[in-house]
Amino acid sequence: MRVDLHVHTRHSRLRKIPVLRARDCYSPPLDVYRKAKSRGMDLVTFTDHDTIDGCVELLSREGSWDDFFISEEVSTRDPRCGCGFHVGVFGINERQHLEIQRLRPDIRDLAAYLAAEAIPASLNHVGSSLVGKRMKVDSLLEVVASFPLLETRNGAQIRVSNQVAEALLNALPGGDQRAGCTGGSDAHTTHRIGRTWTSARAHSRESFLAALRARQVMSEGTSASFPALLRDVYQIVGRYYLDLVRNDYHHFSTRERRTSAACALASLPLHLVALPATGTLYRLLRVRLAARNLTRVLAGTSRECPEEQPAQGEEAVSLSAGA
Q1: What's 12's domain CATH number?
Q2: What is the share, in percent, of the chain residues with pLDDT greater than 90?
Q3: How far apart are the first and last CA of the chain?
Q4: Cα dist from 255 to 45, 82, 106, whole Å
């Protein structure tokens, strides 16, 4: 069975620049579901940022379906170093969602709860998290090892970013406890839904979730290209302005709409002079450089050459919250 385990709907909020009250996706849940099925996905789930509202909307309108399960993407942190991570959690219910949100300020508390509840959980797009704060490789590997699954194929990440996840996986101890590999499009528009996915030997929703728990899954599909990412960025920007004008889903109150409109008009010239394009390219270059740096560090660590090890354990990689 194939499942795109990283998909967003209009319920995913963009936390940066809160005054704009923007979203990082404007796709209605039913449209996302239909697109995933049309692209050959056997099961469907949504992984909106810190909410299951998209899942609840679909189920409340269409009823319980055997080919759908509730998931979310959790924003969490390691308070010891201040680094941020995104974790996909799959097959949850509303009670578990509330507890997950309560525990998400500390990634270790979150990981312990997910393990106790036998909730399949995947550390997402580690490669895109390699910009910003610094984190020692040993600490990063400890975080990776605390989750049973690792997203090694993300359709919104360039190839070198996905290769970092594979390198981290290879740096972990092997054997029966080796992490399973997940994949997902990380689609914030409908264009890339189902282009990257997770596959497992399963015949039903329950057996697929069981395969996730057993780490018996594979990641497949495509990585990102700059033109595809740029198209998505501009589509999201355009949908934001349209949402601001029409407010079809009542995303804005009257007061919020006035404030957001003023800020959006002020930022419009920046959009017209290709700020989204330059911003996207700048981030891709930073991700590429950071990913190559971590790959080099992991290669040096695996060779265990004393002369290549940093003095007094000070080797670190840059790390911050993923996109």
Answers
A1: 3.20.20.140
A2: 57
A3: 28
A4: 34, 34, 34
